[in-house]
Specification:
α1 (7-17) packs across α3 and α2 crosses α3 (33-40). This protein is an all-alpha fold and 83 residues long. 63% of the residues lie in helices and 0% in strands. The two termini are 21 Å apart.
């Protein structure tokens, strides 16, 4: 099961809810406007070292941003352990 990485979607929604420009959001993380634009359009993804900062800033877990359904994985682990 392949999950859709949703970082760009979360960044865009957070930024628009708070009426921040891409420049302002980028300044909060120390990245360029172009980087934020690419993330939102899913042309690229943030550096792994920024994931924690982004997660804390927008209030969404890294797992959720990465499209991971923790319940799905917990169920898979339980099923494996039962074997």
């Amino acid at each position: 099961m392949k999950n859709k990485i949703r970082i760009g979607e979360y960044i865009l929604n957070y930024r628009k809810e708070r009426r921040l420009t891409q420049t302002e959001f980028g300044e909060l993380l120390g990245v360029s406007t172009q980087a934020v634009s690419k993330w939102e359009r899913e042309l690229s993804y943030p550096d792994i070292f920024l994931l924690s900062d982004i997660s804390n800033l927008i209030g969404v877990s890294i797992d959720e941003m990465m499209g991971n359904d923790i319940r799905f994985f917990a169920h898979k682990i339980s099923a494996y352990e039962e074997k």
